[in-house]
Every structure is written in C-alpha cells, then in structure tokens.
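Researcher: Let's do a round of design. I'm pasting the structure tokens now; please hold your answer until I've finished.
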C-alpha cells in the first residue's frame, strides 16, 4: 500500500514537472515543485532526468527541439545542473553569459567563443590571450570570442571577478556595460546587446526600485537578470532566437549585502536557497552548550 501511495505521489510530481517544462503549469504547481526540491522529496537529478525524458519523448515542435539541442550541445551538463539548482541570484547572473554564447554560436560560427565558469562556492584563475589575469568568484562566467586582442579586448562577465589587466591603451578592455552606467542603462545594455531586445520596459514595482537604488547610492552595483531559460525574451513560449520583442522588467531585488541588483524579467520562478525549515531554526544554546549542529 505504501509503495502504491508513493507511486501515485511520484506520478503526480512527474505530471506537474512535465506541465512546467511545457510552460503550462499553474502557480500552485510551481510552488509544489519548489517545495519538493527544497524538502528533498524530489532530487535535482530526478528533475533533470524528467526534463530530458520530456524533451526526448513528448516530441516538442521543431523550433523547440532546435533550441533545446543547441543549448544542451553548447553548455556542459554540470553547468546546467548548477543553473537549475541555484536559479536564484547566481544562476540568473549566469544566464546572460549563456545567451551571449548561444548568440555567438548561431550568428558567428567562424568566431568560436571561449567560456570559463565556476560553480557555487568555487573560484578559479583564468589567463586571457593578452596575458591579463582574471580571478573568478563563485557562480561566475566569463566569455570572449576568437577576435579578442585583435581589434579590442571585449569580454562578457556574469557574476563577480577581479581583473589584473595587461596594459595596452590601443586595445582597451571593454565590458557589456560600464560601472558608472545607471542601473536602468545596465539592464538595457544587457537586454539589447546580448538578448537582442528591441526595447526595454519597467513595471511600476521596478520603477520604484530604480528610484530607491538611486537614492541609496547603489547604482555602482552590477546587475544580473532572472528570466526564463527557454527564450532570449521574457516569454518562455517564444522559443529560439526571438526578434523585435519588448523586454519587460516587472520587479527589481536589491541585494545590498552582496552588492548586486537582480532584475526580475517576466513571470519567472526563482528557486529557494533554503529549505522550508532551515537547519538554523533548530540551533540553540542550552546550559551553555550549542545544540542542533548535527
């Protein structure tokens, strides 16, 4: 009887996940999936296996299959696993670099892209072709194409890194946006120059946060964008390389401690970083002794 109940529960979870992959899930379905992942009732390996099963057996449209094949062919499995496990801030930050890589693979196959990534809590040093050294912090991605150091030195960074730049005034090192740009300008540059958006709009909540960021002096913070992984746009059903779309930012999260601004684009579900009941809730000091650490 217990096995039958568990099978029914597993079938229901699988059905909800498949609806999520199709873009047909309800808000309640997404909350249920999130809680299952947080509480360990659904492992991330099983979640990825179901996504693979959906892609292989449900026969999505030609456009969907093409987009999925290109994405999975260009990004290694470990990186995708980390993206799904940490779809909050660090993952959202990585999406911009992944999309930049995808665009280069489609539009400029003669200019291969080099990409370097770090997982959560991992750091790495990268030496660029011009001998510049870059120390990548946790959950960070750095990309550059084969033209690097020929006409200029342009890189795309998502996350956080320290640069020891080799001096060459004739070939300045350029980023997707400048530190002195406003938060609005940074988001617009990423949306238009990386995602290919025709325009960028901000919802009422996002506009209030932009004003708050300006008043608090946080405009020097870098930005990352939380959006669907199925499209360059904010519409998960607008597969592959969308063109001429409006990139809507509905809200903005200010991570003052981490010194990072997160733009919430479209109706995206951000995975929780903690389970429903964090372990810290069970830690206490009793008679001078710490309890609840095991």
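Researcher: That's everything. Go ahead.
Model: Designed sequence:
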């Amino acid at each position: 009887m217990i096995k039958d109940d568990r099978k029914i529960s597993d079938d229901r979870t699988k059905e909800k996940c498949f609806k999520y992959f199709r873009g047909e899930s309800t808000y309640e379905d997404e909350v249920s999936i999130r809680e299952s992942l947080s509480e360990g009732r659904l492992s991330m390996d099983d979640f990825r296996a179901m996504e693979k099963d959906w892609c292989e057996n449900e026969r999505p449209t030609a456009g969907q299959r093409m987009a999925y094949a290109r994405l999975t062919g260009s990004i290694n499995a470990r990186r995708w696993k980390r993206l799904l496990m940490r779809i909050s801030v660090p993952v959202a930050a990585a999406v911009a670099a992944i999309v930049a890589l995808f665009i280069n693979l489609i539009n400029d196959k003669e200019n291969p892209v080099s990409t370097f990534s770090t997982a959560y809590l991992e750091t790495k040093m990268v030496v660029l072709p011009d001998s510049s050294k870059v120390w990548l912090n946790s959950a960070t991605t750095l990309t550059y194409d084969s033209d690097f150091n020929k006409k200029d030195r342009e890189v795309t960074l998502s996350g956080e890194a320290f640069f020891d730049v080799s001096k060459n005034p004739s070939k300045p090192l350029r980023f997707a946006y400048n530190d002195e740009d406003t938060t609005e300008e940074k988001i617009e540059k990423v949306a238009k120059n990386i995602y290919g958006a025709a325009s960028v709009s901000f919802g009422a909540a996002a506009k209030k946060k932009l004003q708050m960021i300006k008043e608090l002096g946080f405009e020097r913070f870098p930005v990352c964008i939380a959006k669907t992984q199925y499209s360059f746009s904010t519409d998960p059903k607008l597969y592959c390389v969308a063109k001429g779309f409006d990139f809507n930012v509905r809200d903005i999260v200010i991570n003052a401690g981490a010194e990072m601004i997160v733009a919430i684009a479209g109706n995206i579900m951000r995975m929780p970083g903690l389970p429903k009941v964090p372990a810290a809730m069970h830690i206490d000091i009793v008679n001078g002794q710490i309890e609840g650490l095991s």
